[in-house]
Amino acid sequence: MNTSVNKDKVTANTAKHFDVVISGGGLSGALMALSLSTLVTSQQKALKIAIIEANPILTDPSRSFDDRVLALSHGSAAYLANVGAWPYLYQYAEPIKNIHISDRGHYGKARLYAKHQQVDALGYVAEMSVIGAALLKALATKKHITWFTPDSIEDVQWQSEQVNIALSSGAQLTTALLLGCDGVHSPCRKFANIATTSRDYQQSALIANVATAHQHNNIAYERFTETGPIAMLPLSPAPNANQQHQGRCSLVWTLTPALAQKMINLSDDEFAEQLGQSFGHWLGKITHVGKRVVYPLKLVQASEQVYHRMALIGNASHTIHPIAGQGFNLGLRDVSDMTQVLKNALAQQQDIGAFANLMQYAKARQQDQQQVINLTDSLVTLFSNQLPPLVAGRNVGLKVLNYVPMLKNALVKKTMGY
């Protein structure tokens, strides 16, 4: 990978000024920098942007981008193309052409088709590590972006006209705008004393890549079972995979913490048998099981989106349940809206860190974020519950959804990120 990104050294007694400082160089931070990289000042100069990342991301990307898989909506893929990352990514992103939604043991089902929307794919599936590598390759061509890595923020002092930032390396930075793209445990959010609300779903996500006897044919499955929702997302074949393991999928299985731990402790063969029993035989036998990892599931929301000369982006602002696969897509729209707000401010020669501009971002994001959070909360309640009235209601709902075009189109548009 080309990592020839400018890595200026700043001495402890020299404060270096940037138009924007981004805390966090993971997916949200790298995408934020790439999205802002095309903006120019009234003097037609590119913004000076700094990225602060605790992990040595330029020499060891695996420290920030793991092998978990993300579902990219159609709208997200279009945005990645717009900012120049898609050429480095598309060959590794597996298209989702159809979505099958079903409730195991019951009649309710719905089918969503890309061809009915006149698109090649409803979305795409790719490993985080692949998406991260694509963003870094696109950023490597931007010489006005400075990385401070491995480094971290030691202190933040908010002044009326700028933000003063002290790094653990001793570097001193000043900026008109600080963007917190630093994850669910956001240091920026903590420095600003922004409170969070959280809801523990009392669930865990068991994640693994599996191979199946049958090809997935670019179908994404959302299967609701007695043990919890199972998502099987189509993946591109593993390098050098033999014929038996050609059907490769990313599994996200929502379970109680106790059951998730039990599943982790099973042998690969035992786990494959349990998964096959719960998911059914849509894809034939589970022929191979990759590394299994369990993550606790919580909804975390920041009480404020913005602060004086600072805004929160992505997981620093909201971390949601993966049941609808909308987490990264929601964060991407944070990036898009922030970029548009700053573009408008620059066009009008305004201070990009002015609180009035940041409030425009907060207002722009409020409805979308709340809609997605309400959707995921509703799905968790509806499809993780075996009470007979809810089971009956959701099956009727799936049947109605499948045969009422207006409802189906509304769901598909939301799934596609529009």
Strand content: 25-35%
Radius of gyration: 22 Å
The computed structural class is alpha+beta
CATH architecture of the largest domain, by name, is 3-Layer(bba) Sandwich
Number of folding domains? Answer: 2
> Total number of β-strand segments?
20
Low-confidence stretches: 1-13
N- to C-terminal distance: 33 Å
Shape: globular
- What profile does the largest beta sheet have? 9 strands, mixed
Q: Can you identify the CATH superfamily of the largest domain?
A: FAD/NAD(P)-binding domain
CATH topology term of the largest domain = FAD/NAD(P)-binding domain
Number of helices: 10
By CATH reckoning, the class of the largest domain would read: Alpha Beta
Order of helices and strands: EHEEHEEEEHEEEEHEEEEHHEEEEEHHHH
User: Approximately how much helix is present in the residues?
Assistant: 25-40%
